[in-house]
Description:
It contains twelve helices and three strands. It has helices at residues 10-39, 44-64, 75-88, 114-132, 140-159, 164-181, 185-205, 207-217, 228-240, 265-298, 302-326, 345-361; strands at residues 95-98, 101-107, 110-112.
Amino acid sequence: MTIKPKSPDYILFFAVMGLLGLGIVMVYSSSAVSASVNFDDSYYFLKRQLIWASLGLFAMFLTMNIDYHTWRPLAKPILIATIVLLILVLIPGLGKVVNGARRWLGFGSIFLQPSEIAKLGVVIFYADSLVRHQEKLTSFVKGLAPQLAILLLVFGLILKEPDLGTALAIGGTVFILFFAAGAKISHLGGLGAVGVVGIIAAILYEPYRMRRLLAFSDPWSDPLNSGYHIIQSLYAIGSGGLFGVGLGRSREKFLYLPEPHTDFIFAILAEELGFIGTATVLILFFLFAWRGLRVAIAAPDIYGSLLAAGLTTMIILQALMNIAVVTASMPVTGIPLPFISFGGSALIFTMAGVGVVLNISRYVSMK
C-alpha cells in the first residue's frame, strides 16, 4: 500500500525559516563595516547571502518534494563523488587556500566546499548502509569495523584540509547513527575512548591547535594572539545584557572581532540583541531538534528514521559546537552557525538536508 504524502511538518519548517531570516539580518548587520572597508560596498556580503539563501530555499523545496527513498540507490555514488571531491581539494592548484586551509574548489567565479557535500553525503550513505548491514552491527569485526573504515577515510581527508570542526561534526553524527542502528554500547564506548585519544593526538600534532587549547584554558595569557578571538567574543556577549545594544550598533564589528559575519556571528547577535536574541536562536534550534527527531522516531521505515536522525543531528551538533566556541565553552575551531553564518556551500547543502527531513515528515503522522 502506497502512503500518500501529506503536508510537511510546519513547526520544523517555520523554525528553519526563522533562523534563516534572522541570519540574513545578522549577516548584513555584522558585515556592513568590513564590507565597506574592504569592498567599498556595505551590502557586499548581504547581496551574496541573499543569493545563497535563494538557492538554499530552492534546494530545500526541491528535496522536500522528492521521495526520500530516491536517495537510497544513490548512496554509494554520492559517497564516491564526495570522496573524489575531498581528494581533489587537497591537490595544489585545484584546491583554493584561504587562511591556511585548503577547503574550496574553484570553478570560475564559483567556489564549492566539498566538506559541506560530505556532511549530506555521509548521512545518506550511512542511512542506507546501516540498514543493509543492521544484523551484523552487533559484531565489531564483521559489522562495525567496515562501517568505521569508511568514516575514517572521510574524517582523515577533511582533517587534512585542515578542518577539525567539520570532521568532528561528521564523526559525532555517524557515532549517533551507529547507536541508533543498534551497535553494542560496549563497542561504542571503546570507539569513543579511542576517538578522544585521536582528537588529543590531532591537537598535539598541529601547533596552532595546541595554541588554541592553551588559549581556551587561559585566553589572557596571550590576549593579542591566540586568545584574541575568545576575549573579543566574550566582550561582545557581555556587552549585550538583556536586550542588547541595538540592531546595527555593535562595537565589536568595527574590525575588533575577527570573522564577525561567519564563525563568530553569534557573538555579534548577542551584543546587538542581548539575551532575548540569543534565547530566540536557542529556542528555534530546540524546535528544529525536537521536530527533526520526532520525524526520525515516527518515520515509516528504518531508513527514513536514520536519515532524519542523521541530518538533524548533523545540524544541531554544528550549532552546539559553534555556540560553544563563541561562548568560550570549547577551544576555537572553525565551524559556521547553521542558517545564520555567511556562506554559500554550507547554507545550500544544509537547506537541502532540511528538505529531505521535511519530505520524510510528509509520510508520518505528527502531532
